[in-house]
Amino acid sequence: MGAPALALAPREGWSWQPSKTAWFDRMHDRATAFVLAPELAVDLTGLRRTLCDAAEARAEWLYHPALSWLCRPAVDDSRSLDPQILLAAWVARHGASELGAIQVPSTSRLWTPGGPIELAPGCYALDALGAAMRARPIEATIDLDLFGDTLGASAGHACIPDGAWRPGEDNPDAEAWICAYLSALAFLAEELPAISAWLTCVAKVAVPLRQAQDGPEFRSASDPELPGLICMDFGCGAVRMLEALIHESAHQYFYLAEAAAPIVPPDRESLRFPSPLKAKARPLRGVMLAYHALAYITALYDALERAGVTSDRRGLADELAQLRAAADAAEATCLKARHLLTAHGRHFLDQTYEGVRHGTGG
């Protein structure tokens, strides 16, 4: 059997809407047998049926961090109830039938697109929690999760080593940063709709990171177990926020490609290659991951330049030169090692090379 085809025509980088078929199939398998903590006292029959029907229909609402409980490894001894409550409420938000009730044994904070809701201990109709999910006082193409509630906690996850923002924490710049974020998304949707469509196909929720005392001045992160979630610094200007969203969304697309088939054969995963973004040599998968992201980041800046967008960020020209040099270096490494990739990986590399780095870019 040949490599799975990726839905990307050559030289059309921003029109890439890769198939989520393999990912949906995986979700269907997990939905048939997932469990929730017994203390939640949920009848799983309706939840499983709704999830399986949605997976078969390839419903886009499944690709969301609210489904992270299904995306975790099969063996997971975590006792955190918040992600499980979120899953049930999110399914109820989209379910067509009554799904019963859920028992919340201790105070919980439920993420919704309109902001978090404090749940006191007690019994709640899932239909009511689903209705709360529909409230959207702030319209954004990528929803906000200010306190990391989609992660089940405000700290302790690899994506947020310093934690997310905290309720009641003094952050005088928060309102300005959120406005900059919303303005950046609105600009992208209006002026660069092809990029906006590419972005929002996989980016569903953004989590602002707490300011780090030390370390890099700018951070972003994503995780294949958290579909659609991007964690990033907010106090960095609109252009840098767009870069972070594109960067981590490129990783999300990479994870989707890997859901269909390996990029690198398992017997070659131990091989190491020079990496443009790391001091030490990395596995070929890591270089491919970096190259794919750098291809889209540089394409974003090319599109912004064509749109007449400028930035007063000091040193931006030098940073862009470094980004393009890093993309060139990663590209050279990947092309030289192309024969070591799977057929699926070679196709993925070719489309990144032809459709993004050396195509129209939008």
How many β strands by DSSP? 10
What is the CA–CA distance across the termini? 33 Å
Determine the mean pLDDT: 86
Helix content: 40-55%
- Output the helix-strand order: HHHHEEEEHEHHEEEHEEHHH
Shape designation: globular
Q: How are the strands ordered across the major sheet?
A: 5-6-8-7
Low-confidence stretches: 1-11
Count of alpha/pi helices:
11
Rg from Cα: 21 Å
Helix- and strand-based class? alpha/beta
Largest sheet: 4 strands, mixed
Percentage of β-strand residues: 5-15%
Please tell me about this protein's structure.
- The chain is α/β, with parallel strands linked by helices.
- It has a domain at 34-135.
- The chain is built from eleven helices and ten strands.
- The strands form four sheets. A four-stranded mixed beta sheet has the order 5-6-8-7, with helices on one face.
- α4 (82-94) crosses α5 and α6 packs across α7 (193-200).
- The radius of gyration is 21 Å and the shape is globular.
- It starts with 20 loop residues before the first helix and ends in a 5-residue tail after the last helix.
- The model is unreliable at 1-11 (pLDDT under 50).
